């Protein structure tokens, strides 16, 4: 698969893909490439005006829907309002190393936007996604620990560690979801992806020395960074339960391939703990139907 580019995307006509955070960076590139290959892309955005402007520049079928991941009532409204089953759900939207802040439901923002909301969204849609759920993590998951104090109530807040915890949570979630889909007899697969280091708003916004050190060198263009996400979403040979990332040095840049993730991301006991906690915190309890029962 080395050397794979967006030009290698299989024909996407007849497929519907939800992309969260399709107003900036990698989400825009994912929407553009998938719509360009023939998919109908449902752009799930918190800012509809911004979404409209992005959609106007995309050649292909797009639809805009409102989704604010910092508010679980918006997640529920999005899921209720979705008028059809979809082939792929790409959990891409995220915040990166932001100062301490809380979501509408009172969760620390990285936890709420990057993990709990995608967990809830996926749970509400799980029986309506035919092919794949792609969850976008980060190489910085290696700095993460999923702490008993998940919501940063009893420890000093550190924004990069809060980001890293949420990105490790993305992997624990993606791998646990795959185990649960398989156990339920559902053909839908769960795949993780990470873009290496890509020049997007999220990346540029952080001008701190710490951010520069963690980026570890120049960022690749978002058109390159998006390739692992596209591969995870559409390449025919992708198995559930893997992570797709760049094939270059330290997974920072390059073309998509299956990459390793830190041992902690494969900890099934911690993943089950996080799952239970996420169900409690979001109120979304997964009921996964086997493929074939779903209309
Ligand atoms: N760029 C990198 O080097 C890099 C590296 C590793 C992982 N990632 C991951 O890649 C994903 C995309 O990041 P990016 O680099 O493309 O960043 P970005 O340019 O900042 O885009 C982030 C997207 O998420 C959306 N978003 C933020 N908060 C939201 C909320 N409450 N509800 C709904 N949408 C929300 C943003 O919407 P607005 O436009 O309204 O702000 C935007 O569309 C993230 O999951 C990030 O962790 C990126």
From TrEMBL:
The UniProt record lists the keyword Oxidoreductase: yes
Gene Ontology MF: a single term: oxidoreductase activity
Keyword set, alphabetical order: Oxidoreductase
One protein family per Pfam: adh_short
Record SUPFAM superfamilies: NAD(P)-binding Rossmann-fold domains (SSF51735)
Record's keyword annotation contains DNA damage: no
Family assignment from sequence similarity: Belongs to the short-chain dehydrogenases/reductases (SDR) family.
Protein name: Short-chain dehydrogenase
Species in which this protein is naturally found: Jiangella alkaliphila
């Amino acid at each position: 698969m080395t050397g794979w580019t967006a030009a290698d995307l299989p024909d996407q006509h007849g497929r519907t893909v939800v992309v969260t955070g399709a107003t900036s960076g990698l989400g825009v590139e994912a929407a553009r490439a998938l719509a360009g290959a023939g998919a109908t892309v449902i752009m799930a955005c918190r800012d509809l005006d911004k979404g409209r402007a992005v959609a106007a520049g995309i050649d292909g079928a797009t639809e805009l829907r409102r989704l604010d991941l910092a508010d679980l009532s918006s997640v529920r409204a999005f899921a209720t309002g979705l008028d059809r089953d979809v082939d792929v759900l790409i959990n891409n939207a995220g915040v990166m190393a932001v100062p301490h802040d809380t979501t509408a439901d009172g969760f620390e923002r990285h936890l709420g936007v990057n993990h709990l909301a995608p967990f809830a969204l996926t749970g509400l849609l799980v029986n309506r996604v035919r092919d794949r759920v792609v969850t976008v993590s980060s190489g910085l998951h290696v700095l993460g620990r999923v702490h008993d104090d998940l919501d940063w109530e009893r420890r000093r807040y550190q924004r990069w560690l809060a980001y890293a915890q949420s990105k490790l949570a993305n992997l624990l979630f993606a791998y646990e979801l795959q185990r649960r889909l398989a156990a339920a007899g559902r053909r839908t697969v769960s795949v993780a992806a990470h873009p290496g280091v890509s020049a997007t708003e999220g990346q540029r916004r952080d001008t701190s020395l710490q951010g520069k050190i963690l980026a570890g060198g120049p960022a690749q263009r978002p058109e390159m960074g998006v390739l692992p996400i596209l591969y995870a979403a559409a390449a025919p040979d992708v198995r559930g339960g893997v992570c797709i990332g760049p094939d270059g040095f330290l997974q920072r840049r390059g073309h998509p391939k299956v990459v390793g993730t830190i041992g902690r991301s494969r900890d099934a006991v911690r993943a089950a703990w996080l799952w239970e906690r996420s169900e409690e915190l979001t109120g979304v309890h997964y009921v996964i139907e086997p493929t074939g029962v779903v209309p």
